[in-house]
UniProtKB/TrEMBL annotation:
Gene3D superfamilies: 4-hydroxybutyrate coenzyme like domains, Acetyl-CoA hydrolase/transferase C-terminal domain, Glutaconate Coenzyme A-transferase
GO annotation, biological process: acetate metabolic process; acetyl-CoA metabolic process; butyrate metabolic process
Taxonomic lineage: Bacteria, Bacillati, Bacillota, Negativicutes, Selenomonadales
Species: Sporomusa termitida
EC number: 2.8.3.-
Catalytic activity: butanoate + acetyl-CoA = butanoyl-CoA + acetate
Protein name: Probable butyrate:acetyl-CoA coenzyme A-transferase
Annotated family: Belongs to the acetyl-CoA hydrolase/transferase family.
Amino acid sequence: MNLLQEYRSKLVSAEKAVKVIKAGDWVDYNFVLSQPVLLDKALAARKDELRDVKIRGGMRLTPLEVVEIDPNREHFCYNSWHFSAYERQLSDRGLCNYIPMIYRNMPLFYRKSLEVDVAMFTVAPMSSDGYFNFSLTNSASKAIAEQAKIVILEINKQLPVITGGQEEGIHIREIDYIVEGDNPELPVINPVQVSDTDKKIAQFIMREIKDGSTIQLGVGALPNAVGTMIAESDLKNLGMHTEMLVDAYMTMTRAGKITNTLKNINKGKGVFSFCAGSKDLYEWTNDNPALISVPIDYANDPHTMAKNDNLVTINNCVEVDILGQVTAETAGSRQLSGTGGQLDFLTGGYLSQGGKSFICFTSTFTDKRTGQMKSRVLKNLPLSSVVTNPRTQAHYLVTEWGVADLAGRSTWERAERIINIAHPAFREDLIRAAEQLGIWRQSNKHL
């Protein structure tokens, strides 16, 4: 049987494909832009036939039919590796559970611990040699497919083909069913507006970046501000090694700042694991020889990324305490996003020769309920908060008031440095809190 014949033999409607799913099955939707649309709708239509179908996904950018059609969660139970804004809203409604993970472990979870009855996700059209490119999501796509008893692919011609570093696609012989249909436009993430405070924080980080540095940016206004400043700077010959490819990398590359020529590994190539951003970004990635997609256990391996000298990693957080503990994913017991790869890059940036890892945050926020200004620097993280970055891995914390280098520092040194970058209106209270905890020396300067 030739490839075209095999393709036709496996081509079915979405409605027929989801008939393989049984009550109690674990179904995997994969991650971000690989998650199915047609198959999700077809599975939702089977609601009354099924109970307790458990689904994994993550960073969903458009509504999930299986969730919206089942408000009492009797038929489908959705679980997310990393909350998008939509999934955060689902969680608030009791319709989504978080799956704790350090991102680099995601493929290992599938290969070592997880059951997958049916995997169904979206891919680019088949190549002439029988491969389907995983396109904008290569985090654990191959690992999911290997573990699944049944693999169903939904074809979307809107998806670009991404040059692969490894595990970037799957052959037709490894799948069971193919579904074609409408090719919906890919959802986009609009750039977050950058505030004056964000720009102040970005300016502190810009002082620490040198020619030839390799850059990792997280998602959000602060990393975007840094990317914009780099594009407008005199820096040159920068590299890219990141989990998430965002618009800022395209901006920096088009400005001639990113060349990847001085990297020690993957020289000449920008490395990423998944991509989400603008339509222009998606078009830029298509068959772009300057980019390679890799699974997340490669992109986020601290020892791999640290082979690049002067690795600078830049990520956001929600709150910190005066011990140096960081939460980047919760507000008290409320799950906001996920651990993701923040701890991976915090570790890798510090391991890199000349490397630096920055966790950024505005020193205050306005409470939406009361209208009061509150500090993001606290005596203790709130009850039930999740520690994303333990104090033992702390490196640089950055606010609009400055930079605190915590690596290797004692408890009293940490307290002093962290309080020094808190908003001045809260520093006296934080000093008293440090005294209560026994981590404030009489010789500490009075801030």
